[in-house]
Every structure is written in C-alpha cells, then in structure tokens.
Amino acid sequence: xxxxxxxxxxxxxxxxxxxxxxxxxxxxxxxxxxxxxxxxxxxxxxxxxxxxxxxxxxxxxxxxxxxxxxxxxxxxxxxxxxxxxxxxxxxxxxxxxxxxxxxxxxxxxxxxxxxxxxxxxxxxxxxxxxxxxxxxxxxxxxxxxxxxxxxxxxxxxxxxxxxxxxxxxxxxxxxxxxxxxxxxxxxxxxxxxxxxxxxxxxxxxxxxxxxxxxxxxxxxxxxxxxxxxxxxxxxxxxxxxxxxxxxxxxxxxxxxxxxxxxxxxxxxxxxxxxxxxxxxxxxxxxxxxxxxxxxxxxxxxxxxxxxxxxxxxxxxxxxxxxxxxxxxxxxxxxxxxxxxxxxxxxxxxxxxxxxxxxxxxxxxxxxxxxxxxxxxxxxxxxxxxxxxxxxxxxxxxxxxxxxxxxxxxxxxxxxxxxxxxxxxxxxxxxxxxxxxxxxxxxxxxxxxxxxxxxxxxxxxxxxxx
Length: 465
What we know:
Oligomer: single chain
Largest sheet: 2 strands, antiparallel
Number of helices: 18
Order of helices and strands: HHHHHHHHHHHHHHHEEHHH
Strand content: under 5%
Number of domains: 1
Strand order of the largest sheet: 1-2
Low-confidence stretches: 1-7, 22-28, 121-140
C-alpha cells in the first residue's frame, strides 16, 4: 500500500484495520492454535472410529465411544470405555495408533516450538542467556528441531519395536506378521506414554516377562523425559558441569520418583494375593518397577489396580499428578514444576529471599508460573472429582483416582471407566484434553503475556498462616 493511499484513510478506518489485525494475530497466536489443532485431529479421529469398518462390536452410544477413544488416543492417555483388543477391528487399531503418533509428535514438537517462540519474544540478552544455558537452537532452526524430534521418536520406537517383535514371535507363538504388528503398536504406545494395549488384560499376562516389561518401561521413561533433555544429553553426555538446571531437575527428579515409587509399591503389594503375592521374586521386582514407571503417565498396568491397597492408590495418585518431563510425551504438572515449588518452599523455610538450585537462582516469574500451573491442576482435579461424584455412585477413592488419571493423561483405572454414564465420560474427556494441552498453553501464555510494570503500588502484608 502506497503512502498516498495511507494518507487518504480516516482515523476510524485506521483504527478498524488495526483492530482487525490484532484480532487476526490473536486467533493465529501459536498458544491458541495448539488446542485448536488437537481438537481438529480429535474430530477427524472420532469420525474414522465411527465408521463400521473400525468396529468389530456394537455399542449403544457409538458417538461417545468414538470421541472418548479419539480423545484418549490423541491426548496419549489410554483410558478406555471398551475393550481395545476386541471392540475395534485392525483398521480401528490402525486409526488409534495413528492418533497416538500424531498426538505424541504434536506434543513434543509444539511444546518445543512454543518454547522457542517464547524465547524469541524476550530481549537480546535474555535470548543469549537462554541459548547458552539450555544449549538449544534459536527460533530460526524450527525445521531442524522438528527433524531431530522425528529422528528421536523413530530411533526409540524402532528399537523398542524390534525387541518386542522378537519376543512376541519367539516366546508367544505369534506368526511374524502378528508379532511385528504387536511390537510396533506397543512400542509407539509406550514411547508416547499412551498405555493402549492389544490385550484385554493390558500387560497383566506379561507381568513376569522382563523382555516385554523392561523395554516398555525404558521407552516410557525416554518419552517422558522430554525432547530438550534428550537433545542436551546427546550434546553434553556425562559432563555434569555442562548440565542445565532443567536437565538436572528432570533427570534427578525422575530417578528419585522412580526409586521411591518402586520401593513403596513393593512395600504395600509384595505379599498380597490379589497383586504381587503370586509372582516369583523376580516377578515381584519387575512388578514393583512397573508400578513406579507406569503411573508416570504411561497407563499400562501389570496388576489389577482395582485390587490394590488404598496406600498404593495414594502413591499412584501422587506420581500421576506430578507426571514426567516438560516438552515430552508425559502429562501431569511436570517434574520441573513440582521441584521448583519444592525448592521454593525449602528456601522459604530456611529464610532465604532468593530461590537457588545448583548454584543458580530461579526467577520469581518462574516460581509464579510453576505455582499457577500446579494450582490450576489442583483446581481441575477438584472440579472433575466433584462432577464425577455428582453423576456416579462410586466412592471418593475410586473417583479421585480416575480424575487424576485423566488429568495426568495416564490411563490407569480401578475398573470403573467401563461403567461410567456418558456424562461422566465427557467430564473425563475434558480432563484429558485439559491435562494434555493445558500445562503447555498456560505456561507459554503466562510467559508471553508478561509485561514490565512501569510503577510499583504500595505494599501491604496480609497475615499468612
């Protein structure tokens, strides 16, 4: 548009055009496009699952079942209202697997792109500090980032699928085609922390088979660490002095939660006839490991959680709510969020004004961001639990477990998901969608919406405690 044309526009026209441009920018903002993109994939997936070719069985509410499965697949949760192995045809299984792969890749790539977008909006000094501190690429390397994500997913999924295929083929009398399909399906489901299985009892039938459980656990942990952590590990190796705070928090925090979870799971279930009791010593160790790994948003199960002790369910609730690493395939509020808040409390108790981790200070904005994500997660769980209690007759213990599992995109259940009314299923769908999309978009939106205040208001201190 020429300068003469601009000069002929009235102030009203200029204002309207400016407002239109702002509206367009708001609608096309990356933070807002994330939930819209996932919603579009869910609708397409539900439409495919509604086709007669996708279903081997019939149900009274095909629409709700299709949407629930599509949401659970795209949000890589694993909660199901029908038996995946028998209700869906091979075509339906392929649709579910495609939705899992799209959801997993979308989470990793979009979370990374949002992180890069946020860093692009801050000042030059902030960009240089962030780049040197995280050892990641700048915003101009988006294509390179996505290719790296694809390579990482391909390597982990292919290696896991290879081990599983060999085991299914050799030990379980599957023909090569069936073994290959089962290996690929469970490898993709594991790395993307989805928890879908092609067996009616999930992985209970393989509870004592380390060639099945261990590779799946390894894929779950790898996918749950997050893309930034995997990239930094490839670059720095075991040079601990070059590790960033994010890498340290994610790795050390994950190892701590896995160890504590396994020990407590074994302590509560070791001799119980309903869970680990009938297994061999090695099987009990394997079951304890799985009981610590699977709640980190994977959703597979090698025991019946409906028969687990209240103590086990409580520990599992905590692990599900915390989740895994940021910008990965895991859900929950994320391990870094949990640990930043933990260090903030520890420093506050010790009377320190500045929160420090490994000789690095954590900004107040990061602390507020972590607090916001955590409290919004608590609010979502409370609201979801209340709604489910209103529309079902199940106990608080079972409903709370189901709600946290949905919000954390875990997929574990005490067995009540099959018997929930349609209203409750839609509540769980909303929780799964919120849990998968919410933490990424909320954290990015907070960072992007932050504006420097040009003045300070008078301080007043209310009574705390």
